[in-house]
Amino acid sequence: MKVVIATGGNALKQGNDLSERAQRAAIGVAADAIIPIICNPENQVSITHGNGPQSGLMLKKEESYGEDKSSLNTIGGGTQGMIGLMLFYALQERLSQQGSDKKVVQIGTVVEVDPNDPAMQKPTKYIGKTYPQSEEDALRAAGHDVAYYKGEDVEGIRVVVPSPKPEVIMQDKAADLLMSGGFVPIVCGGGGAPIYWSDTGKIIPVDGVVDKDFTSMEFALSIDADVLLILTAAPKVYINYGTPEQKSFDHLTVAEVEAFKRDGHFPPGSMGPKMDAATEFVTRSANKNAVVIIAALSQASEALFGNAGTRITM
Questions:
Q1: Is position 264 annotated as part of the catalytic site?
Q2: What's the farthest any 2 CA atoms get from each other in the chain?
Q3: How many CA atoms lie within 13 Å of 75's alpha carbon, on the beta-carbon side?
Q4: Is residue 40 annotated as a catalytic residue, yes or no?
Q5: Residue 126 has what pLDDT?
Q6: Annotation marks residue 28 as catalytic
Q7: Does the pLDDT at position 82 exceed 90?
Q8: Which of 59, 116, 140, 167 is most solvent-facing, going by the fewest CB within 10 Å?
Q9: pTM of whole model > 0.85?
Q10: What are phi and psi of 103, to 5 degrees?
């Protein structure tokens, strides 16, 4: 079975603590959750990850360099390496402890985007930590766009940046080849570093963060994956989350998801991107049995076998 495991940047940290110690600890927890899937010799597995919180942290640190600060594109590429390295250490260590001969490979990933994508002019992607609203003016004065954010255990404001849709993943075939050879590629980190081609054939880096779920979806399609496993903080897909009318689902069809969206569920700043990526994957896949599973990180292995999470199919 060919499986793409998508982990969010928030799953790779502890609360608002973005120290290396805290990230290593969180990544260790993530590795423990997905290692049974990777160790199964019948599975070909690749891992994608988010980088929103980490990119925001690095962007904040760069502000002290003034005009010499690194671009968001470069920062995103750097966090691919940083997070990928920590994932490599955690996964390879556990594979060796389990007696598996599988090897983990980190692939720095570049994705082509459309320079005319409307998202380029409308920042919506949250990055970095959550700030108290009293810091809004200071963040705007530093040149950032900001938006209100409410998570499970925190609310305030966060920096938002453009998030264009991925069109071409330049390293997808390399990752697929590695998977077929028994390797475990870490790919599409942070959605990949976005670029477009100029009329003269030059690569133009884009300052933005491509949504990890959309890149994971496009990658899963390009390698004809059987399963796109999206790991989140919540154990299932919900509607009316956090209210007395809250309801969870074991299974949803594309038609049911679309009906819920028309009723105002799964908004863009919440589960919207994940649900859009899920329905697009199962709709476009040439594999009639393709499935998306959305589940809690801690239940990754159980979810793959139908004992946890929400399965989305045609």
A1: no
A2: 57
A3: 25
A4: no
A5: 82
A6: no
A7: yes
A8: 116
A9: yes
A10: -120, 140
Q: At 134, is the secondary structure helix, strand, or coil?
A: helix
Token output for 290 = 């393709």
Q: What is the 3-state secondary structure (H, E, C) of 125-169?
A: EEEEEEECHHHHHHHHHCCCEEEEEECCCCEEEEEEECCCCEEEE
125 is catalytic: yes
Whose CA is closest to 8, among 307, 281, 277, 287? 277
Per-residue pLDDT reduced to its tens digit, 206-225: 988 898 999 999 999 999 99
Determine whether 10 is an active site residue: yes
Catalytic residue, from 125, 129, 165, 236: name it.
Answer: 125
Catalytic residue among 73, 192, 274, 309: 274
Q: How far apart are CA 194 and CA 144, in angstroms?
A: 19
Note the pLDDT tens digit of each residue in 227-266: 999 999 889 999 998 899 999 999 999 999 999 999 999 9
Backbone angles phi, psi at 22, to 5 degrees: -65, -40
The active-site residue, picked from 10, 16, 40, 287, is: 10
Is residue 184 over pLDDT 80? Answer: yes
The pLDDT score that the predictor gives to residue 269 is 66
